[in-house]
């Protein structure tokens, strides 16, 4: 098949399906399984601290495998393709870890070990399938692809909140884990089967990897460099919030059986967000991505500040929906945006390094927020006020960097970006 030939909607749909399985997995552990199990083993005032440390350990180790997979699959040649072997290997490690977790989850140490293994496997797969948009999808369809990946990201997150939250609310942890195993297995098969005829060496120029040459390239790629820095601040401002939603509902909104309400909120907020993802993806193909890349984190920062004044679950749903729309679309669109500025043939290397900035932010975010909550008294209102203030600050720093260093918002140039 011709390189960068136009892809059918079915093809783009199948290629991106693995986003659903992995995000179903990630949000279930971040928002539900980890806080739920830690709350059963640790004193109330130290729960956030333990949660932040475990999250940091798992994510920081996992992202190294993300970068390794992206770099390795750029130059990998096998009978099974370039990206597919690491997608399958990473998913296999994750599935085996989940099966182990069904049997062993009764101590902090076992939780830590399994979470690290899950992060290793899922990040290995993620670092391999992230460059597919540059490998296979033509320029004029990448916005559509980012919209569909965003759709799957949000639907997977909604399933994590919804199904895992509902089952956990009824103390069906093992059943929730089996649902994730089934989802990840099916979506991985969809992705590797869809790309089987195009995941080969001729889809990219062969470039031998040297760290010195790579960092020299990065120094010359100003948009890539500044976008990665801004992305770090936006991710550190946003991703850690989901880890503490369970505790926020239980201790600040005084909601009993918080897992059920996390499920309700997740389904409502992320269904709205998923619908917006495809629409914004199509619009961005028409008017350009620069406007959205800047405005989405601005709206996100404002939304986080507004949560400070929330005392009602229903008001939380409204503000949370806006926050979900902004972050979900920023996350998927930023990957597509980066695919336009990285050198051809080095998509895996550059996009893995961009993903590394995401991973570093994701690792530090829960640890920072865990320490903030611990320092300001644990599960108290003032602690969460400080948390939301700092979160919005990170959002705004990222948006400012994007405005001055990354995007060009001159009206006559928007359509060309």
TrEMBL record:
Give GO MF terms, alphabetically. Answer: transmembrane transporter activity
Keywords, sorted A to Z: Membrane, Transmembrane, Transmembrane helix
Show the InterPro entries listed in the entry: MFS (IPR011701), MFS_dom (IPR020846), MFS_trans_sf (IPR036259)
Q: Any transmembrane segments, and where? A: 21-43, 49-73, 85-103, 109-130, 151-170, 176-195, 226-248, 260-284, 291-308, 314-332, 353-377, 383-407
Q: Which domain of life is it from?
A: Archaea
Instruction: Keyword check for Transmembrane, yes or no.
Output: yes
One Pfam family name is MFS_1
UniProt protein name:
Permease
Report the residue ranges that make up the Major facilitator superfamily (MFS) profile domain in this protein: 1-410
């Amino acid at each position: 098949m011709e390189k960068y030939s136009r892809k059918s909607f079915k093809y783009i749909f199948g290629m991106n399906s693995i986003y659903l399985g992995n995000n179903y997995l990630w949000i279930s552990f971040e928002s539900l399984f980890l806080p739920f199990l830690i709350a059963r083993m640790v004193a109330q005032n130290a729960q956030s601290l333990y949660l932040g440390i475990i999250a940091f350990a798992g994510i920081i180790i996992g992202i190294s495998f993300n970068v390794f997979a992206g770099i390795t699959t750029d130059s990998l040649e096998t009978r099974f393709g370039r990206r597919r072997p690491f997608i399958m290997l990473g998913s296999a490690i994750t599935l085996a870890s989940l099966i182990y977790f069904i049997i062993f989850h009764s101590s902090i140490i076992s939780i830590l070990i399994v979470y690290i293994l899950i992060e290793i496997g899922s990040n290995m797969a993620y670092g391999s399938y992230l460059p597919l948009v540059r490998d296979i999808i033509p320029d004029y369809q990448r916005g559509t692809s980012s919209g569909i990946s965003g759709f799957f990201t949000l639907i997977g997150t909604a399933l994590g909140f919804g199904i895992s939250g509902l089952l956990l609310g009824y103390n069906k942890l093992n059943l929730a884990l089996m649902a994730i195993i089934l989802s990840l297995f099916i979506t991985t098969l969809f992705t590797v089967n869809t790309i089987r005829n195009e995941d080969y060496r001729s889809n990219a120029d062969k470039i031998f990897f040297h760290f010195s040459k790579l960092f020299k390239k990065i120094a010359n790629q100003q948009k890539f460099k500044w976008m990665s820095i801004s992305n770090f601040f936006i991710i550190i401002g946003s991703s850690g919030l989901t880890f503490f939603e369970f505790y926020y509902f239980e201790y600040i909104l005084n909601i009993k059986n918080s897992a059920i309400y996390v499920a309700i909120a997740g389904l409502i907020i992320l269904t709205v967000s998923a619908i917006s993802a495809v629409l914004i993806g199509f619009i961005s193909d028409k008017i350009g991505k620069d406007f959205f890349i800047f405005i989405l984190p601005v709206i996100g920062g404002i939304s986080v500040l507004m949560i400070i004044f929330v005392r009602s679950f229903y008001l939380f749903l409204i503000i949370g929906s806006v926050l979900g729309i902004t972050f979900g679309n920023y996350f998927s669109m930023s990957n597509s945006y980066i695919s336009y500025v990285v050198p051809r043939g080095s998509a895996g290397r550059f996009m893995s390094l961009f993903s590394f900035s995401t991973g570093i932010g994701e690792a530090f975010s829960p640890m920072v927020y865990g320490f903030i909550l611990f320092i300001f008294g644990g599960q108290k209102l003032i602690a969460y006020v400080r948390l939301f203030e700092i979160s919005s600050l990170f959002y705004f720093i990222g948006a400012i960097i994007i405005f001055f260093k990354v995007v060009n918002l001159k009206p006559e140039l928007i359509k060309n970006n």
